[in-house]
Every structure is written in structure tokens, then in C-alpha cells.
Amino acid sequence: MYLNKINLFLVISICLIFFFLTYNDVKSVEIKVIDGDTINLNGEKIRFIGIDTPELKQTCNKNNEVIYCGIEARKLLIDKIGKSKVSCIKEGKDKYNRTLAECFINDFSLSKFLVREGYAFAYRKYSKKFIKDEDYARENNLGMWSMNFEYPWNYRKKN
């Protein structure tokens, strides 16, 4: 009987160790917003998977006024996060060794928020997940959809 309790304890211990070593959920303690789709969370650079936002130096035009749409996307993300805790579900690494993840505040996707507000695009090259959110923003003329803009991937090619 005593040996069975020890074996049970060892099995449970091994399972718990395995769980904690493979668990891919990251919760924020320290967060810095780098741009509209990249954050630094607890020292780890995280790129939001499935979306693309304008670059910080990228501009848009609305009624002959220059709008720094990349900075606007970053500000929108900063305001949304505020003092909330961010949790992310990791999905791998990109070619720049950034962690690819979808990040949330209270189970609400930050990527979905940015796309629905019109300051991010469904990055169809890598995911189809946020297409309906992009359609919503475009149909309602939200964010960049109310401006003349260049898609971020085209902007990067030129600059």
C-alpha cells in the first residue's frame, strides 16, 4: 500500500512537471507596446499572428490631411491594453525569432479588436481567421478604411 502511494505521487509529480514545461500561455507582468502588432511581454518579443498593422512611419491620407496611421494603430493598442493584464497563446516563431501568438485581455482578442477598428488587416498570407472582422471594418468605413492607404506589406516592399 505504501509503495502504491509513492508511485502515485511520482506519477502525479511527473505529470505536473510535464504540464508546466509545455504550457504555452504567457500572462503579462511587464508589457511594452512596440507597434500595432508587436509587444514585448515579460522580456519576450511577441508578434500578433494572423494580422498586419501599418508601420510606425507609414502615413495615410484623409481629406488631404496626413495621418500617421502606424502611430494611430500603436496608440489604439496602448489605450486598449491600459493597465489590463495581457495573456497570449503562443503558436510558434517567425523568421525574426519573434514569438507568434494571439494575445487577449479578459478572453477578448487584441488582434480581433485592431482589425474590427480598421487599424489592422487580416494577414491572409498566413491566416484566414480575421477576414470577417476586416469585412466589418471596411463595410463600416472604420479606421484606415476611411482613408487612402497602402497595405503594410506593400509599404514594406517599397521602403
Model description:
This protein is of the alpha+beta class and 159 residues long. It has one domain (24-158): OB fold (Dihydrolipoamide Acetyltransferase, E2P) (Beta Barrel). Helices cover 36% and strands 27% of the residues. The chain has helices at 2-22, 69-81, 110-116, 131-139, 152-158; strands at residues 25-27, 31-35, 38-41, 44-48, 51-52, 60-62, 65-67, 87-93, 99-105, 108-109, 121-122. Strands 1, 2, 3, 4, 8, 9 and 10 form a seven-stranded mixed beta sheet that branches. Helix 3 (110-116) runs parallel beside helix 4. The longest helix is centred in the N-terminal third of the chain and has 21 residues, at 2-22. The chain is globular.
CATH class: Mainly Beta
Strand content: 25-35%
CATH architecture: Beta Barrel
Shape summary: globular
Kindly, what is the distance between the CA atoms of the first and last residues, rounded to a whole number of angstroms?
71 Å
Q: Return the structural class.
A: alpha+beta
* Radius of gyration based on Cα positions: 20 Å
- Kindly give the count of domains: 1
Sheet having the most strands: 7 strands, mixed
What is the count of β-strands?
11
CATH topological fold name: OB fold (Dihydrolipoamide Acetyltransferase, E2P)
Mean pLDDT: 88
Helix content: 25-40%
Unreliable stretches (pLDDT < 50, length at least 5) are 13-25
Secondary-structure element pattern, one letter each: HEEEEEEEHEEEHEHH
DSSP helix count? 5
